[in-house]
Amino acid sequence: MKKYPSKISYGLLLFVLAVPIGTIFPLISSQRWFAIGVNLCIVTFILILFFNLFYAIDEEWLYIKLGLVLIKKIDIQSIIMMSETRSLISAPAVSLDRLEIIYSKHKSIIISPRDKSGFIDHITLINPNITVQYKAT
Questions:
Q1: CATH code where residue 15 lies
Q2: Radius of gyration in angstroms for the set of CA atoms belonging to the chain, rounded to a whole number
Q3: Which of helix, strand or coil describes residue 124?
Q4: Fewest C-beta atoms under 10 Å: which of 61, 67, 68, 97?
Q5: What's the pTM value of the predicted model, to 2 decimals?
């Protein structure tokens, strides 16, 4: 099984962390220790989400995992198309440099593998019938 870690957009990470980190400083000055602890837990949770997301491929399945938690399991033979996208739709992707995978007629998911070309090559090696659409640069 080959793992492809998610690409991380540090701008997106900073955007998501802005509020919990920004509110820590006023809480420190007012010595609200419980609220500081809650904010630090939120920051830790966000960092875990960003740095433990990956995609794994074996002979017939694509697994989308967050640490040890399986988010989605997709039969590679059911994949119809992959296309590059910069969609802002909520997805198991921590970058805006994304791939939309359309599978099983009307289902889709958006992911963001760090090695996008290696990921595409690996999937299309298993299922050469997949249509791949690249964005015009």
A1: 2.30.29
A2: 18
A3: helix
A4: 68
A5: 0.82
